[in-house]
Design goal:
Length: 471
Amino acid sequence: PPDPSSPGDAADANHGDLSYPRVVKGVRRAFATGRTLSYEYRMQQLKNLLAMMEECEEDIIEALRLDLRRNKHETIFVEVDATKNELLHTLAELKEWMKPEKPRKTMASLLDTLTIYKDPLGVVLVMGAWNYPVFLTVSPLIGAIAAGNAAIIKPSEIAAATAEFFARKVPKYLDPECYRVVLGGIPETTLLLKERFDYIFYTGSTMVGRIVREAANKHLTPVTLELGGKSPTYLSATADIEVATRRIMWGKCMNVGQTCVAPDYLLCTPEVRDLFVAAAKKVLLDFCGADPKASTDLARIVSDRQFQRLTQYLKCGKIVIGGETDAAERFIAPTVLVDVKADDPVMQDEIFGPILPIYTVRDASEAIEFINSREKPLALYVFTNDEQEYKLFIKHTSSGGICVNDCMIHVAVEGLPFGGVGESGMGAYHGKKSFDTFSHHKSALIKDLGAIGEAAGSLRYPPYHDKKMAF
Ligand code: NAD
C-alpha cells in the first residue's frame, strides 16, 4: 500500500488503505514527540483550521451541493458559520481551560499542594456522520486539538464529496503527522476500529454506536456516542400556533429533516392538530412555494436506500400536506401525516426525513406519559405560553436536551453541552465540554519532605494504639 505518512496525496493514500496499524502508529509517534502539548501549538492548529473554513468556503458549499444538494446559505449557516463560532470560542477560551485547577483543601491536606492538571488523552479517533458532515466532524476535532491530542479523522463515506474535501485539505492546513484523515466505508471502518485509540468520538446511528462501543471495549477505550432517536415535539393550545408552526416546520425542512435533533413527530390535541395543519400549509407555501420540488432551498435525501425507507412511511396514517416524491431526484416534499398509530413504523423508527406525523393526545400529562413510554430522545421540544406546562416536561421527562418554544437552536450555543442520554447517546461536547471530554483530569498531590509535615502525618504509621488513633 502507498505510504500513509505522505500527506501530499492523502486522498489516494487513504482510500481502502489496509495499513491502519501503520497509520495509527505514525500518529502515535508524532504525539509522543510532545509537540501537541504546548498552548502555542494548539492555538496554531486551531487557527489553521479556521483558515481552512474561511479559505475553503466555496469548496465546502460545492461538496454539500454534491452530497445533499444543500442550498448555499444553509451550508454557510449550519456548517461553515457554526464551525467557525466553535473555533472562535475555543481560541478565546483555551488559555483559561488549560489552566490547572486548585481544589479546596481539607484539614488533612492543609500542608500539601493540590492541583488538577488537564492532560491530553493521546491519539483519538473522530468518526463523523453524513448529515452535517463538516460541522459534525470538525467540531469534535476542535475539542481534540484544544485538549492537546493527536487525531485520526474518519468522515462518513456517505457524504463522499465532503470526505474527499477533508482528505484533500486537512493535510494542507493541519500538522499532517498528528492529524490524519482516513477514508472508507464499513469494511475499512471495521478494520480501523480494531486499532487501539485513547478515545473514540462517534456520531451516527444508535445501531452503529453499539458496534463502536463493542470495539472500544476490547481496549477499554472510553467513548462519546452522539446518537439519534425520535425527538418529540409537544404543541400546547396556549402557544402562538403560527409562530410555533413556522419554527417546527423550519426544523423539519432544514436539510429536509435529516438532522439528529429535527422535531420527529408532533404531540397535540385534535383541536390543536387542525390549527397546526392549516398553519403548516401556509408556512410551507411561504418557505418553498406551490411547487416544493422547484424550490432551491430544499435539500435532497442522501441515498436511494434512505429514499426507499422514507417513502414507506408515507403509507402510514393519512397525508394532509405534501406526499409528492421523485425517486430520480431523491426528492420528498415536506409532508404532514395525521391519524397515525403508535405502532406504525413512522412512529417507531427515527424518521430522518421531511415527514411529520401528528399523534393526538388529551393533554400535556398524556404527552409526557407517551414520551416516557419510549426510548430517551436526543432533544425534546415544547411549545407553550404556560410556564407551569413546560416545567412539567423539564421535571418529568429525560432527554439529551430540551428547548422550549423553538427547535434545534440549543445545539448551536457553545455554553450548552450537547449530547444524548440512554439510547440517544453518552457523553456531551461543545465549548468547554469538548475540551473536558478530550482531557484527562489528572489529580496531583505534592508534599515536601520536611519535619513539620512528617510530624503531622506520623499518626498513620504503625504501631496503632487507641490513644494515638483518638487524637
Ligand atoms: P453514517 O452512515 O454516516 O455513519 C456514521 C459513521 O459510522 C461513519 O463514519 C461510517 O463509516 C460508520 N459506520 C457505518 N456503519 C458502520 C459499521 N457497520 N461498522 C463500523 N462503522 C460504521 O451515519 P448514520 O449512522 O446514517 O447517521 C444517521 C444517524 O446519526 C441518525 O440516527 C442520527 O440521529 C444520528 N446523528 C446523531 C448526531 C448527534 O450529534 N447526536 C448527529 C448526526 C446524526
